Amino acid sequence: MRTAGLPLLRGRLRWLRSRGRRDRLKPGSLRVERMSLHGRDITSIRDLSREEIEEVLASARKMIPFAEGSKVAKPLAEKIVAMAFFEPSTRTRLSFEAAVHRLGGNCLTITDAGATSLRKGESLYDTIRMLSSYADAIVIRHPNEGSARLAARASDRPVINAGDGAGQHPTQTLLDLATLQEAFGTLTGLRVVLLGDLKYGRTVHSLAYALAEFGSELILSSPPGLRLPEERREELRRAGGRVSEEPDLRKAVQDADALYVTRIQKERFVDESEYREVAGSYRIDGSVLAHAKPRLIVMHPLPRAGEIAPEVDQTPHAAYFRQAFLAVPVRMALLAAILGARKRGV
Amino acid sequence: MRELKITPIKNGTVIDHIANGLALEVLRIIGVRDLDKDSTVSVAIHVRSGKLGWKDIVKVENMELSPRKVNAIALIAPTATISIIRDYKVREKRVVDLPPRIVGVLRCPNPTCISNQPEPIESEFELTERRPVILTCAFCERRVDDFLHHLA
Q1: Residues A206 and A318 in one domain
Q2: Most C-beta atoms within 10 A of its C-beta, which of A110, A252, A315, B47?
Q3: Is residue A140 part of a domain?
Q4: Is A120 a catalytic residue?
Q5: Does residue A12 form part of some domain?
Q6: What percent of chain A has pLDDT over 70?
Q7: Which CATH class is domain B12-95?
Q8: What is the separation of C-alpha A104 from the centre of its chain, rounded to a whole number of angstroms?
Q9: Which residues of A fall within a CB distance of 8 Å from B142?
Q10: Active-site residue, from A91, A251, A268, A304
Q11: Is residue A221 part of a domain?
Q12: Does A328 touch chain B (CB under 8 A)?
């Protein structure tokens, strides 16, 4: 009983110290605008209005020096974010963890579903319900579509979807948008080529939807078996998107502002022969980029598997590593918003 | 009623104006095995109809349908009318209609949807379009327009 007050006192001292440090950091101190996202679940890009997306992106821009470590702030000190990763992930998990650490928070991480009670037959619902009593927010990746929505129902803390099977991956879309906005200063009126697996690729579905909402033009280029499903095209048309198709990659990149390349994901194919037919059917190299505008940027959610030749890395076209970095400030902005960082005096 | 060649019922439910050929599916939804052992079920298939040309009719004694069963019937037989009979008289008659949320009636056609896994949840769909009816899974966002093969 005597020790019960000590952690609280230590926490308070830590908070005061971090406050002092923030004060010393002026004028670089972190100002997080309080958005309407406080306490909200982010399971799909559709959970965010256009204005909310713009707010997250604006906040992410301010987060960049903090994400780089050149400035320091701790608005999430004493906050715990659970990373419930039931499917392999490198970039997504590490960038979420980096985002939490850069904001001064702590992570609880599950990276091996086999080491949890799921293996003993516990439902995902129960696992998340339990986890929500240990953490202030939950980031979930799971192989089943709709699992983040289930998690949001099970949890009384906000849930962020970090990829649910072939379903949604809203924070990837946000960082893709941040990359485009950083490069061009706008998300409206761009011509964006979406290349590769447009059938199973979850990142392109959400990105295409968001770009259509912002009024950019989409040029679809994919192997015949991996075309964007009709249902998704209809959705883009309803969102007012201008969509065309150009299977010839060299023609597709002419006049384009961005080329968004995806990996053909072996794990999404039920039929391996279908995968073998399309694997390696496109590759971005100097000969393709010779047809592009000098300002064209090449994006990729990574990991790549031969879709982009290493020679492209050295050209001004390569934006994929910057895109991978922007994952951190974007996720910082989102975490700060849903956890109400400004309320904590940031 | 003479034309229908099936006798009136004292108490129960009459599902009329079922699109021709779907009576057996409606019976499957009603769950004939769960009925009171003294109940009679009458089915008329391929009956002349002024409105539909041909139709099916199902009459079930001593049973009133739960909202969930009405929703399921509305999905596969949207033209159906449901009459509640008490003491040989029609006490209530209504056209089937779908609510904005349909819970526990259909299975999501996406085999990897979380609602098809052993989780303590019921399937749930949002009514996206009314004509023709299109539903969207509340979990994985899969759109569904073929209901007959996905009844729970």
Answers
A1: yes
A2: A252
A3: yes
A4: yes
A5: no
A6: 85
A7: alpha beta
A8: 20
A9: 145
A10: A91
A11: yes
A12: no
Give the minimum alpha-carbon distance from B126 to chain A in angstroms, rounded to a whole number. 14
The range of the structural domain enclosing residue A201 comes to 170-325
Q: Read off φ and ψ for residue A327, nearest 5 degrees.
A: -55, -35
Sheet containing B101-103: give its strands across. B101-103, B124-129, B134-137, B143-144
- Mutation pick from B141, B145, B146 vs chain A, by most beta carbons of A within 10 Å, is B141
Same domain, A148 and A195: no
Per CB-CB distance under 8 Å, the chain B contacts of A145 are 110, 112-114, 139-142
**Cβ contact A125–B138 (<8 Å):** no
Provide the number of CB pairs (under 8 Å) joining chain A to chain B. Answer: 55
Q: Counting every residue, how long is chain B? A: 152
Residues on chain A touching B121 (C-beta within 8 angstroms): 125, 150, 153
Q: CB distance B112–A144 less than 8 Å? A: yes
To the query of whether residue A43 is one of the catalytic residues in this protein, the response is no
B121-146: average pLDDT: 93
Which residues are paired to A46 by β-bridges? none
* Count of structural domains within chain A: 2
Do A252 and A313 sit in the same domain of this protein? Answer: yes
Same domain flag for A194 and A163 = no
ipTM of model over 0.95? no
Beta carbons within 8 Å of B105's beta carbon, 6+ residues apart: B68, B71, B72, B75, B123, B125, B151, B152
CB contact under 8 A, B118 and A123: yes
CA A64 to CA A182: how far, in whole Å? Answer: 11
CATH number of the domain enclosing A261: 3.40.50.1370
CB contacts, 8 Å: B139 with chain A: 145-147, 149-150
The verdict on whether A141 is a catalytic residue reads yes
- In this model, does residue A183 exceed pLDDT 50? yes
Residues A192 and A268 in one domain: yes
Q: Are residues A156 and A204 in the same domain?
A: no
Within-domain flag for A230: yes
Q: Which of A10-14, A174-178, A189-193, A303-307 has the lowest mean pLDDT?
A: A10-14
The verdict on whether A169 is a catalytic residue reads: yes
Residue A139 has pLDDT above 80, yes or no: yes
According to CATH, what is the number of the domain B101-150? Answer: 2.30.30.20
- Ramachandran area for residue A158 (φ above 0: left; ψ -120 to 50: alpha; else beta): beta
Question: Token digits for A199?
Answer: 């059938």
DSSP A228: P
Q: List chain B domain ranges.
A: 12-95, 101-150
Question: Is A145 within 8 Å of B120 when comparing Cβ atoms?
Answer: no
**Can you give the C-alpha Rg of chain A in angstroms?**
21
